[in-house]
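Risk register update: the risk of archive-format incompatibility is retired. Evidence:
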Amino acid sequence: MIDWVDFVAPLVHNEGQGSPFYAGEVMSTTPDGELDWGIFKRMQMLGSYASTVQVRSARMADGRQAIRVSGNLVKWFQGHNVFGTNDLRGLVLEALAKILEIGGINASISEMQSWVTGDIDLMRVDCTESADFGNEKRVLNALRSLDQTSNMKFRGRGQFNGHSLLFGKGSRTWSLTLYSKGTELRKHKLPVGLADTPLQAFADGMLRMEFRLLSMHLKELGLAKLWAWCENTAPSVHQIMLQNLQISDATMLDSDIIESLPTRYKLIYQSWRDGHDLRTILTRPTFYRHRRALLSHGVDIAIKQDRNEPEKSNVVPIRVVLVGKPVNVPEWAYNTPMYYQPPSVFPALAAAA
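Archived output:
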């Protein structure tokens, strides 16, 4: 499912005061009082169930006048993001049509044609998939287990807060968040018009896996323009990115294998098992050299271990395999306002033609 989207679309319009997108400006001056730089503030545009997206005047990468739109488009149209569509192009085009309607302005035929052909810069796209674990308790147990046994390639260990596990916090390229959708929904609450629907019960068993792809990584993937996306792009990218999530097969070795380890690895293993963060003790090359050696024995020293645990037995508890069923749009949501499917044609362009 497509979640948050941040994009820039070409559109000639009046800027500054009097513009339908004007919400004020932020300016910086030099010590002499001269204008150093300025940027337009984002205007909040209301959608369904009080959801909003932010719009402001901007420029395309090639300097053309444009608008920048940022927000959760699925939630803007259907009021929630428990499930939704993978049709990024449809969502963006429908958002632009609605923004024109709210702003009371018209786009030229050539501008609308450029949108339809995908001449839109993507600054951020969140791609999500969910797995069904049956209930909220099982989801939280799965997250606790992953906190102890998982490591993200190029990102290291995750940051766990009890109901979400984040890899790559603050990254300028991409990050992954695993979280309990039911817990999040209880915290932020559904809008009044959706509170009495099956959405909360449906979300309670969901473990959401959300990749945030920023412009730098979108360019690297060749997905920084809207024309590069089709309806299968988001799930394909998600599947490829998720392969970077590494889960340790075991957290301990039995005594026979420990005895067979070279002395230098016994000490490394013991320090890791006692809960020490070896990244802070060893140099980067040494850490990864030892990690490669111990991975052949089923131990990943990049996975953190709890400190001050009671003495463990000699036999390794192999990790519990976590299995969740893929989550699809439920049958009861089709042909209702709870599930928004973008139309196959851009209505404004069709009307103009």
